[in-house]
Amino acid sequence: SIPLGFFGGIGSASKHGILVKGGNYLEGLKNSDIVVFDKTGTLTKGKFEVQEIVTVSNLSKDELLEYAAYAEKSSNHPIANSILKAYPHEIDFKKIGYHHEVAGHGIKAEIDGKEVLAGNAKLMKANNIEYKIQSNNKTVVHIAIDGEYKGYISIFDKLKDDAKEAVTRLRQAGVKSIGMLTGDIDQTAQEIKNELGMDFVRSELLPDQKVYELEKIMDEYKGKGKVLFVGDGINDAPVLARADIGVAMGGLGSDAAIEAADVVIMTDEPSKISEAMKIAKLTNKIVW
Ligand code: ADP
Ligand code: MG
């Protein structure tokens, strides 16, 4: 039978905006020794802002932004939303032909009869696009049209207000190792690791590589501790499902995340994870 205290713990967690899907997850929360975060939308706000538009062609900055906005129109990735926010005009859907989103890469779409690529360096490489621009110290969306490199849009995202507190509190709660998995470039990942005081990062990962990296971490700690993963469900739902304990940021409204997770943080605050652990530990005291 399930000890009554478990229900008390679940109820108490829900008052704090933390949804626990079952009593055994309270147990898992209590025993989490390694906490791994996704970056975009989890530690950062997931609201990128366009910083700079660089064109290396006959296209103006406005034209480059226009192609990017049309390409990103059908994507719900945070990067797509930011580019569309920066584009002040209506989208004429008649101009959009096919549209293909490549996870962890970007978009391939037909705009005005031309093939438009909008995404990261991996997308350019996969399509044999040569780009001479040095932009490896920022997060950028490269744009190529009909096989020719046209320039990039640099974007930046801000850390959530409680990102640092989230890491500090986990450390205080005795978590042994805290890290991050991301599809973003290494420089951005390293900066966040240093700023937040995390132990490790793995960057430039495709969605299936995130699962593989998590499995490696789980192997490393086998018999020594449970691995908790926190994500927002965009390109990381399989990782949420694979972790010993998967925690989803539920407020952004990703059904995939809520489905795959064991615990849902309704307020999207990463600092709630240490709170969930605290409640789990208290619950245990009440039961036994
Ligand atoms: P994270 O791990 O930070 O949550 P993702 O796995 O969602 O990031 O995406 C990884 C990278 O793939 C992004 O940093 C970006 O370079 C590229 N990318 C993904 N989707 C898009 C898109 N719709 N438009 C442009 N680039 C994209
Ligand atoms: Mg993500």
TrEMBL record:
It is found in: Cell membrane; Membrane. Belongs to the cation transport ATPase (P-type) (TC 3.A.3) family. Type IB subfamily. This is Cd(2+)-exporting ATPase. The lineage of its organism: Bacteria, Bacillati, Bacillota, Clostridia, Peptostreptococcales. The chain holds residues 397 to 684 of 732 of the full protein.
